[in-house]
Each structure stands twice: as structure tokens, then as C-alpha cells.
Design goal:
This protein has 15 helices and 13 strands. The protein has helices at 3-7, 11-19, 25-43, 51-66, 109-116, 159-166, 183-189, 222-232, 276-291, 307-322, 326-329, 335-344, 349-369, 410-414, 443-456; strands spanning 46-49, 78-82, 120-125, 137-138, 142-143, 172-177, 192-195, 214-219, 262-265, 295-298, 375-379, 418-425, 431-438.
Amino acid sequence: MPSDDLCFASAVDLADWIRAKRVSPVEVTQAVLVRIERVNPALNAYCLVTADAALAAARAVEAAIMRGERLGPLAGVPVSIKDLVITKGVRTTFGSWLYADHVPDEDAPVVERLRQGGAVIVGKTTTPEFGWKGDTASPLLGISRNPWDVSKSPGGSSGGAAAAVAAGLAPLAVGTDGGGSIRIPGSFCGVFGLKPTYGLVPVYPAPSTGTLSHAGPMARTVGDAALMLQAMAGPDDRDPLSFPKTGQDFSVGAADGLRGLRVAWSPTFGYANVDPEVRQLTEALARHCEGLGALVETIPQLFPDPDPIWAPLFYTGIAARILPRLPEWGDRIDPALVRVAQEYAPLSAVKWQEAVTARAAFIESVRRFFERFDLLLSPTLPVPPFTAGAERPPAPPAGSRLAWVAFTYPFNLTGQPAATIPAGWTSGGLPVGLQIVGRRLDDLRVLRAAAALEAAAPWAQRRPPV
């Protein structure tokens, strides 16, 4: 099989081929490493490639196959790890000069589980500093780029992860999401990404943004992400808010469809200003659910913009992390991050608690909404990809700093599962995403809905021009 075809094969297929000895895990890993060497200079998706360790892991899988040992579900499948996620013996910088030489002595739970499942870790992907924004650029790691148009942003903060998946630089990637950081780059890069129910996938070390932050899978296909989630999910004592396994098998039954589901379609949530082409593409795919047997209802006004709740909770966490370091490191920290931290530093404890209380009320209002509906669909983002390295679009939608990510951060507040799937490509060839939101603990239904839409309007065979 041609090397690039291996690189764009699904994780499910690769795992099956490796178990059947149709391809060697070493051959697959070598193909991915060669493609990374060729393509990554144009994208800056990887900030560190662990080629020797990856080949050693692939050889270990190959030896296990030859011995007839039972293999993990991801045996031999290449995966990347976002540089916000700690990796034992492998540099983890959080995109910051503060941690430029930081080498953890343990793996995060998700990394540990992927290794146990037999996955081959090929490297660390880029992130903005501490994952603070929706573009992937930082003083330490530089500017990352979109494989569909290298002048455009891949989104953030899991921009390197999304770009790597889209460009065939490993079929699976670990992303994190505190306000949309899996779904934003998933939308911009034309891949699938899932922010799972909070607590389903353990997060450790504890992030500065607390219970807003999730870890989840990114992949070219829904089935690949489901297989990955199966390996990642489950409790870990290092994350006391992670909860026992739900008993669901995410890797099977993902194509059961939308028939009979009550689906809400909200093109603006009542407050977002959406690019006309984005709305056209996402609405067309949302309406496609009717042909798949769903009952679709348009909801113009969903809830008031929860930006005033999310922003203080998120940015004060970031501020607490960097403000003590400003005297020594201020000139090497992203200047825009410094400004945001200084803006939120004076926030009083009373104001912060008001945001916590408002969050609880918001969660309850959304829970009641989902008593009427099984799923909620919206554009993932109001805008298509913009210039690489820019914090926001050059002409952002009217509103706050967060107006251009208006659809994603509400569900970090609620902790519900929320995914992005490709809804199509603009006339300029740039991806647009549709967001699918489910009830708490209803991750399997989100996956099934995404798989049904994927089967009806496939996207994974389309390759970027990079």
C-alpha cells in the first residue's frame, strides 16, 4: 500500500490490518514519521517528534503479534498528544517558555491508557500558551497552520492536534477543551472532535481552569474517535471528579442512526452573528437529519449569552497561573495573554462566586431544555478559518472577545458532551463544522448521531492540499 494511503487510513482499519498481519505496525509508524518529516515544516503541527520511541513501541507490538499475544484495541496505531498533556520522559512545555525544559516523571491518565491499549505515540502537538486562546500560536512554539490553506489558522487550542489529524500525520490525537479547544480546531481543520461529558475521561494534573477543562479524542472518522474514547474513559484516583465506567461500549453501535430522536437546531442561540456561508452549510446538514428519521425543530432563542459566566472562571484561572511569574518572565509570555490576565486579576472573590452561582443556574436551565430534546445542533463556529497567528478574526462578529466562539463555551459550563463534525467546505475550500450536543452522560448518542451524518455525507476521504 502506498505510504500516504497508510497515513490516511482509519485507525479502525489500521488496527484490524495489524491484527490480521496485513500490514506491520513498524511499516505504519515509518510511513507516518516520513510524512511528518515532509509535511510538518509547512504546518508546525508537531512541536516534538519522538521517532525513536515510536519505532521502539511499534517493534514491541510487532513482536507481540509474532508471539501470538493478545493485543490492545489500538495496537500499532499512531497517536499524537497535545503539549498541554504530560508525558513521562518526554518534554511537555504547555506552549510556554516557563516550561521549555520541563520533562514530567509520569504520564497523564489518558496517555497511560493509550499506551496500555497499544497505541504508538509519535509526538507532541502544538498549543497556544496554557491553551488560553482559539488560535495556535505562542512565543515558544511559533505559529501553527491549517492544512487546507497554510495562510489560515488551524484554530485552537488543540490546533496542532487537529492539523496533524487532517494532514495524515497520525489518525488519532489527544485534545483538550476548556472553552471549545477540541471543537474549534476540529471545525477549522475538517475533522471530528468530541468533548466528552465532564468526568468521563480523567484530567490530571488538575488544570488551572478547573472543571471547565476536558480531554477528548480527535480523529478523521467518528468510529476512530469512538475507539479512542473507549480506551480513554474511566475513573482515575488522580482525578477525584472522574467517575466509574458507565458500562457503555463506545466502539460499537455508533451507526444506529437518528431515527425518532427529537433534535433542536439553533442557528444563532439567539445571540451569535453567523457568517452566511457557515449558516447555509450547517443548516443544510442539520436539515438532513429529517431525512434520517429525526424530528427537527428550529429554536431561534436558546439562552442568554453565558460569556459573563464563563470568562471570569476561565481567565482568573489563567491569571493565577502566570501573574506570579510576570516579574521574571513577562517579556517571554504571550503579550495578549498578559493583558487578559491583568484584566481579570482585580476580580474580587465575591464576583468570582457570583459567576459560580450563575453557572449552577445556567446548568439547570440547559438541563431543562434537554428534557424536551435528545440533541442540540448548531454551527460549531460562526466564522470560517481566518489568518494564522491572529487571536481573533480580523473583523470579528459584534460582541465580546468570545463572539467568534459563541457556540462552544456554553457546554464547558454545563459539562455536557459536545462534538464537531465537518458540515462542508466554503467556496474558498475551507472547512466548516456542525456542533452536536447531548445530555450529560449521553456521549454514545452524540457519537451515533455523528456517525449517521457521516454515513449520509462522508468527509474522511477528502484530503487537504498541503
